[in-house]
Structures are given as C-alpha cells and as structure tokens.
TrEMBL record:
Pfam families: ABC_tran. Residues 2-232 form the ABC transporter domain. It comes from Opitutus terrae (strain DSM 11246 / JCM 15787 / PB90-1). Belongs to the ABC transporter superfamily. This is ABC transporter related. SMART domains: AAA. It comes from the Bacteria. Keywords: ATP-binding, Nucleotide-binding, Transport. SUPFAM superfamilies: P-loop containing nucleoside triphosphate hydrolases (SSF52540). GO terms for molecular function: ATP binding; ATP hydrolysis activity.
Amino acid sequence: MIEVKGLVKTYGTKRAVNGVSFSVRRGDILGFLGPNGAGKSTTMKLITGFLRPNAGTAMVDGIDVTLDPVAVKSKLGYLPESAPAYPEMTVEEFLGFIAEVRGFRAKDARQAAVERVIALTHLVSVRKQTIETLSKGYKQRVGFAQALLHDPPVLVLDEPTDGLDPNQKNEVRALIKKMAAEKAVILSTHILEEVDAICNRVIIISEGRIVVDETPAQLRARQPGARLDEIFRTLTSVDA
Ligand SMILES: Nc1ncnc2c1ncn2[C@@H]1O[C@H](COP(=O)(O)OP(=O)(O)OP(=O)(O)O)[C@@H](O)[C@H]1O
C-alpha cells in the first residue's frame, strides 16, 4: 500500500531524509522510531504529499504522490503532529467542514460520515464543544476523527499518543489495532513500549537514514536481555 524508494529531502544544506526506502502492506502497523530530528515527520510529510522530495518516490496504493497528490490524499488519512486548527469551531462543525473539503457534497452523506467517526473515536460527549475548550486527549481524538472521515485504506499517524495520559494512550492504541486489519498504518513515536504494544514492524531512522527494518521480536533479539531503550540507544548513538 505504501512504497517508498530512495527518498531524499534537504532543507538548505541539511539532508533531513537521506535515501529512505521501505514498504508497508495492508494489515501492517509500522512503528517509525528515531531520536528528535531524525527525519520521521519529514518522511511522513513526503508520503502524504505535504512536501516534495528532492529525489526518490513515494507511492500510495500504486499512485505516485508527486504526480497525483490529490488522488493520494483521497487514499490516506493523516494525523499531523500538531492539534487541529479552527479552535472556535465545535467538534461537529469542524468535522462537517472537513467532510465537505473531503468531497462529501450531499448533506446526508456528510452527516453519516461525521456520525461514524464521532462514534468511532468516542467524541459524543463533546460534540457541541469548541475545539479550544477540549483537553489534549480529546483534541487528539478530533485529529484522529478527521483522518478517518473518508475511511482511507492508508493511515499516517505522527506521534498519535504524544502527550496523552496512560488511559488515553491505551484507548488510542486499541483504536489503531482495531482498524489495522483492513489498512496499512504507519505511526511515528518516541515511545518504545508503543512498538511492542501495537506494531508488527519497526523502522528506526537516525540522521535521515534507516538503520533497522524488522519485527519487534527481531529487534529484541539483537541484544537478548537488554531493555528496548538500550538497544535503541546503541543503534542511534552518533559517533563523535
Ligand atoms: N522546515 C524546516 N526547515 C529547516 N529544517 C527543518 C525543517 N523541518 C525539519 N527540519 C530539520 O530536519 C531534520 C528532521 O526533522 P524532522 O521534523 O523530520 O525530525 P523528527 O524525526 O520528526 O523529529 P521529532 O521527533 O523531534 O519530531 C531536523 O534536523 C530538523 O531540524
């Protein structure tokens, strides 16, 4: 569903993403790990078409993101790092607005899509509240809800549990797992336990390059008995 080959993105002289290649199939939950500044968000923005690569290609469901970004956007749901904008809109107004942008022209279809995601992400109790008055966990759910409106086959989630309390983290992870059988999911995280909890594959990126692409079990087997964070440190520490 996602096929990335030789992606390069430079900012000025900085190579934020430096020749990244990987693929994600339906049913995969791929954990994208790496230290701050490793290139996770930039890679996700290249896959979703928010940035153009200097070299390489990203294909979503067989469509080249650079050649047809509009078609690709209809295939994927993207949860960006930051919370949803439009703080003065209520939850249902915001989701209705995004549904319209997403192409739900008929009112009935729009309402049905909004109701589906409000139920799925447990937003019923806050649907009439403005976004600015929501807690961080609920804002995150609104971000999720907008990514799911058109029931896309591919989900790209940038730190989906960042800043949530343990209960909220569990809830979001359960939701991702529930949806994953039918979709290809890529999520970035700093949290190693998250990879163990929900991912069937893990990629570790360091300084714009992939240093690991394997299963969580294979990652653990690299240093039997070591904690995941120790293995992570070994793999991503930069020689002086
Ligand atoms: N718009 C930009 N202009 C210049 N440099 C940028 C820009 N966006 C990102 N960078 C740089 O590119 C590198 C990769 O950033 P990116 O945000 O992709 O990393 P990340 O792995 O997502 O980090 P984090 O975990 O902190 O979110 C970093 O060195 C960052 O400072």
